[in-house]
Amino acid sequence: MGVCMSKIVEIENLTKSYEKDSVKALNGINLTIEEGEFIAIMGPSGSGKSTLLNMIGALDKADDGKIIVDGHDLRVKKDLSDFRSETIGFVFQLHNLLPMLSSLENVELPTYELRISSDERRKRALKLLENVGVEDKAKFSPNKLSGGERQRVAVARALVNHPSIILADEPTGSLDSDNSQKILQILKDLHQQKNITLIIITHDPNVAKQAERIINILDGKVVEALV
Ligand SMILES: Nc1ncnc2c1ncn2[C@@H]1O[C@H](COP(=O)(O)OP(=O)(O)O)[C@@H](O)[C@H]1O
Ligand SMILES: [Mg+2]
């Protein structure tokens, strides 16, 4: 704590409805996240967690309210894909890797948004596969990998553009507890070594208790923890 901390996410009264207002997915979210925090987002299914994460990652636009991420006002910003590729690393529950590409090519894919050489691309991707412990699987299709290995590749892919924020939507939701802890440890190490802001949606209390702060979402709002 101290004067050096800066806000990386500032959200005020954020609302989002689907299907012509019949579903209020976000119903006035207020939330501030400091740079370098490790946050767990919890709450029942359908409470708006994924919608909130998608707003922070500029995958979707809010109806109303304020959302500023890494200095960008996302409600007025035009080039959202640049923002995404330069600032955000996404990890999903189902890894979303492309089966027709090798694991290495999957990790390289987001770097095509950047102006870097093919040598640099390959070097970065290989180094990351090494960091997450699956460099021996670089040439294999994700289809040939175990669930835990695939999620490691997905983490490597999320990191390849050096994001300042990792957004992970139930990243360990389809893993056994051993693999779940290994993936979480990789994310925690990154957070500690590189000061990456880590925001993880999870249902797993064992994952949540390792975070520095837990945000509880209910009916599209942030609620105080029930003690
Ligand atoms: N693309 C969409 N179209 C219509 N309704 C949606 C869409 N995405 C989410 N919703 C609805 O918004 C609410 C919040 O969903 P979501 O953010 O996915 O919740 P959570 O991730 O907490 O399970 C739910 O009622 C869900 O059905
Ligand atoms: Mg969800």
Q: What tags apply to this protein structure?
A:
227 residues; alpha/beta; Rossmann fold; 6-stranded mixed sheet; 7 helices; globular; binds adenosine-5'-diphosphate; binds magnesium ion
What does the model show?
The protein is α/β, with parallel strands linked by helices and 227 residues long. It has one domain: Rossmann fold (3-Layer(aba) Sandwich), CATH 3.40.50.300. Helices cover 31% and strands 27% of the residues. It is built from seven helices and ten strands. It has helices spanning 49-56, 80-87, 103-108, 118-131, 147-159, 177-194, 205-208, and strands at residues 7-18, 23-34, 38-42, 64-69, 72-73, 88-92, 165-169, 197-201, 213-218, 221-223. The relative contact order is 0.20.
Instruction: Specify the overall morphology.
Output: globular
Main sheet summary: 6 strands, mixed
Number of domains: 1
By CATH, the topology is: Rossmann fold
How much of the sequence lies in strands comes to 25-35%
Structural class: alpha/beta
Radius of gyration: 17 Å
**What is the helical fraction, as a range of percent?**
25-40%
Query: What is the number of E strands?
Result: 10
Distance between the termini: 24 Å
Mean pLDDT: 92
> Number of helical segments?
7
List the helices and strands in order.
Answer: EEEHEEHEHHHEHEHEE
CATH superfamily: P-loop containing nucleotide triphosphate hydrolases
- CATH architecture field: 3-Layer(aba) Sandwich
Strand order of the largest sheet: 6-7-8-3-9-10
What is the CATH class?
Answer: Alpha Beta
Parts with pLDDT < 50 across at least 5 consecutive residues:
none
